[in-house]
Amino acid sequence: MLHSLEQFTKKYVEFNASELFTLASLFKPVSFNENDFIIKKSQRVSNIYFLDSGVVKSYIEKNNRMYNVKFHFKPILFSDLNAIINKKKSTRTFVTVKKSNVFMANFDDILKLNENSEKHKRFFEMIFEDDYVVNSNLFM
Asked: Which of the listed residues 39, 65, 68, 104 has the most CB atoms within 10 Å of its CB?
């Protein structure tokens, strides 16, 4: 996980070994088989996820139909950040397309890290840019 996390973070911020390890230490491994749910519609969400291997799709349901929102390929961070920020139930479902290794971190732990590290804060602002623009006080 550390290697793929490093490859992913380099696109945004150059972390030294200590900073990368601090970030990685927040994530706990979880394995999912094909068609396992990571987040279900109407579920409360408090974690963000790092996809280390496999494929995850997110979709919404409307009028008894599924509409794909996005396919997530490794390495990537994902979650229903809108649900986390607004303390609402998820409007999306995240399900594995094939067996996937995922690491999850509690979002409150991410916020605590951001309070103590400008570099980590800047990284997450870039990752969640769209949600950050909509919820500008998210990382403040």
From this structure: 39
Please give the C-alpha separations between residue 19 and each of 48, 73, 76, 100, 119, in angstroms, as whole numbers: 18, 24, 18, 26, 9
Give the up-direction half-sphere exposure of residue 29: CA atoms within 13 A in the CB hemisphere.
8
- Bridge partner residues of 103 (DSSP): 29, 50
Distance CA(31)–CA(53), nearest Å, equals: 10
Distance (Å, whole) CA 91 – CA 16: 36
| Global pTM exceeds 0.85 | yes
Q: Residue 64 corresponds to which amino acid?
A: N
With a CB cutoff of 8 Å and minimum separation 6, the contacts of 103 are: 1, 27, 28, 29, 30, 49, 50, 52
Is the omega angle on the peptide bond into residue 29 within 30 degrees of 0, that is, cis? no
Mean pLDDT along residues 103-121: 96
Contact 72, 97 (CB under 8 A): no
Listed in sequence order, the residues at least 6 apart from 49 whose beta carbon sits closer than 8 Å to its beta carbon are: 38, 56, 77, 78, 79, 94, 102, 103, 104, 105
Interval 30-40: pLDDT, tens: 999 999 999 99
